[in-house]
Amino acid sequence: MPAPPHLAQTLRSRTKHFRSSSRSLFLAVLVGVTVGLGAVVFQFLGHLVVRFSLVQYAGYAPPEATGEGTPFTHPPTTLVPWMIVVVMVCGALVAGWMVYQFAPEAAGPGTDAAIDAFHNQHGKIAARVPFVKTIASAIALGTGTSGGREGPICQIGAGIGSMVAQRLQLSPRDRRILLAAGMGAGVGALFRAPLAGAVFAAEILYSDAELEADVIVPAATSSVIAYSIYTQSLPPEVRFQPLFGIKVEHAISGPLELIPYLMLACALIPVGIAYVQMFYGSQWAFERLPVRPHVRPAIGALFAGIVGVGFYYLAGQQMSALAVLGSGSGTLQEAVHHSLRLGPPLLIAIALVKIVTTSLSIGSGSPGGVFGPSMVIGGCFSAGLGLYLHDWMPNLAPHPEAFAIVGMAGFFAGVSNAPISTIIMVRALTGDFGLLVPTMLVTTITFGFGRRSRLYRKQVPTRMDSPAHRGDFIVDVLDGVQVRGTYRPIDSYSLIHESMSLDEIVHRLADNHQHYFPVVDADRNMVGIFTDDDVRSYLFHDAIWKLANASDVMTTNVVAVTPDDDLNTALGHFTALNLEELPVVEDHQSQRLLGMLRRRETIATYNRRIREHKEGTRE
């Protein structure tokens, strides 16, 4: 006995949803596997470059966080400080040449480029970008550039997600989702924080308190997979440790202890503003240097190296002072666990000089991230301030190291406008969940006062401001307005018969301003469609003009509407597929062509409906 029509329709709908969900899950897993392997390669290359550049020629093995797990054992060496500058310049010269020669979009921080691709490039990133970014960033960071791994792994992961989507010819919406899933997978794997990676991918796209909800589940899936693969490449003893080693445990015993954290938040705001202003001021200055962009990273590395090594001598040749170069994660771990050993003057000085060296390094176009330096700046500055507050009010600030943890989150939340993922990530890096209340307090304040001065300038305020969601918020007023009153009859279009030769098509295009060309059979049933762009690819192959016909040029995967469909449905197709015109057919079975519906006229109908609504409201 056949199922009732409404039940059959429900079953088809559920089956379609299940297939769509299964496909999304499979694609997220595929992206997670690829990004996880990419993170392993990127991390290994970075350690390899350190071993055979800084260690080999400068005798300097940058202290790293315990959980990073370098695969190399460095031999005993003698530090030659000024050779660090030479190695930095050489590395930046090679990295700069690679980037500007093969993928200029891979220059500087990669996170902003990934955000821009999501909002403005339909989720498209050139396939060469993740490969160039992997090698160039490993060289730049491995030779001492003051930068982090977050930016590169974001762009690498985003590029892999976009590449997978483009190879499978997915829609712009699906490309954007996989791009963001790749970002989350990279961050979740490299920082061993899969939940933070998923939230980061959804949150970092916007400067206001907004999340890209469609991204969270695919990003969580890919982040968990990438994390699982990446951690298997680490030594067993650090595989499941927090990045900064043993778990840190702090807590507050009463609400009065929030007072010094409030003072910390107020101090972090101007430091964050100074960081952003100096970073973009440096970028502005380097862009105006009368030299090829290929050598700008080397110039930035030269000045950053001189500042870093000079600071090392001014600080009494303390190895911790060299945290102003490279990642600085080892010194940050020292600040988290034993800040008293470093002392407040050195900690605060490291934070301020790190602002300068990062601005010179990444602002000059060298590939590297700004998350890692932000953690060092926020953590060291806060640890130094925490020591001062401990001396001034020991009862209210009994744990000065706790300020380093809270300050890391508060500082980056203020400059990145990503408070939720930052809180989760810092908790994962330290393993400390006892400071959740002061962390929320500080991040809320820095986020609220730092929104106008942000590191990621490609962020848009909300989904309504994103070109990626243009059309998503205007379909309701079109609900119930049928296509039949808006489409153009087919008599005003030039139709192409399926047997028409390519030679005839080319000559017809020469005298026609039409962009979309429906292909029909003898009964005027539509069998396909092509655009003038599809034909242009054959213009320089006139030898096949007589051999090929319309069937060779057209696509048969056509999305069409009927006169009884509403403009809500049509606009959904326009937005999802990024089309300018849709064929209008008599019904979906016969595919008899009646005309074409244009996006511009659909928007005009929307505008007219909005005016009518406003006038009706005023009355």
Automatic annotation (TrEMBL):
InterPro entries noted in UniProt: CBS_dom (IPR000644), CBS_dom_sf (IPR046342), Cl-channel_core (IPR014743), ClC (IPR001807), ClC-type_chloride_channel (IPR050368)
Segments forming domain CBS: 487-547, 554-615
Membrane topology: Multi-pass membrane protein
Transmembrane segments: 24-45, 79-100, 177-202, 258-276, 297-315, 370-390, 402-426, 433-450
Pfam families, sorted: CBS, Voltage_CLC
Alphabetic keyword roster: CBS domain, Chloride, Chloride channel, Ion channel, Ion transport, Membrane, Transmembrane, Transmembrane helix, Transport
GO cellular component: chloride channel complex
Matching CDD domains: Voltage_gated_ClC
Coiled-coil features, chain-numbered ranges: none
Subcellular localization(s) per the UniProt record: Membrane
GO molecular function annotation: chloride channel activity
Full protein name: H(+)/Cl(-) exchange transporter ClcA
Organism: Rosistilla ulvae
